[in-house]
Amino acid sequence: MANATQYLDENYPSSNRSLVTNLDISNKNFVGNLIISGFVNLQKLNYSFNNFDGSITFDDDSLKIEDIDSSFVNTFGKHWYDMGKLKKLNLSNNQISELDLDGSSNLAYLYCHDNSFRELNLNNSVKYVEVNCSNNPTLSKINLPEIFVPVLFDCRNTTLDQVPFSNSSVFDCQKNTILPQNTTTSNNTTTTTSNNPVTVTATPTTYNNPDTATATPTTNNNLGLKIGLSVVGIIAIFLLGLVTFLCYRRRIRKKGTSTSILQIANDRDR
Fold first, then answer.
1. Distance CA 228, CA 257 (A)
2. Which CATH class is domain 2-179?
3. Which positions, given as ranges, span the membrane (predicted)?
4. DSSP string covering 210-254, please?
5. How much is the pTM?
6. What is the C-alpha separation between 45 and 199, in angstroms, rounded?
7. In what order do the strands lie in the sheet with 130-132?
8. pLDDT tens digit string along 29-63?
9. Mean predicted lDDT score pLDDT of the chain
């Protein structure tokens, strides 16, 4: 089994750590503790798929980190993340029971599913876009910030019932959907849960411009217009037929006159 501290000392000397912005030490069979120290410009950190059965700590030089992947590291107990620039945190598939996010006011993406939480406090940020806290069988309470309308929210397989969003909508964790407003549900209702996390989208409301007036014809006006067009059509057909008849009659007369003149000429020749 490898030691993370020794690995960092050998591959990232203290004099060079200020140059590192992306640190990936995932899937290296590390055990024990993890101490992130001296990486003053670190923005992205991935130490997933290890076996840190001890503590994971960050020094004050790690405050610029924006993205942390701490999934599948077999960690447990309580975790603290007081990072003002942290935007994405993945703690999934561990045994974490408590989470303190105070100070992480820019956190937008939180994945803490498949853990052992009883309560989640998300009051630290009003910028949440995606929150997945599913598969926490003992999770029975979640504290939300004043503004909470995530694009993706998944709380299946918890003991949570309904979660109110700040836009007055209510999310039903058991049905994995947003309930229509002014709708009450019974706890005895049997429901089917989707295998995919629900996507919550806000549909913008379209308002009519009060300065623009549009005249809409009434049904009677439409009927009168149709009748008028029908009459005009009938008259046009009648006139077309009359003109055709007169032209034909005139042609017959001319033909008859020509025949008479020809007969008179023939009689004279005889």
1. 44
2. alpha beta
3. 227-248
4. TT-------HHHHHHHHHHHHHHHHHHHHHHHHHHHHHHHHHHHH
5. 0.68
6. 27
7. 22-24, 44-46, 67-69, 88-90, 109-111, 130-132, 152-154
8. 999 899 999 999 999 999 999 998 778 899 888 88
9. 81
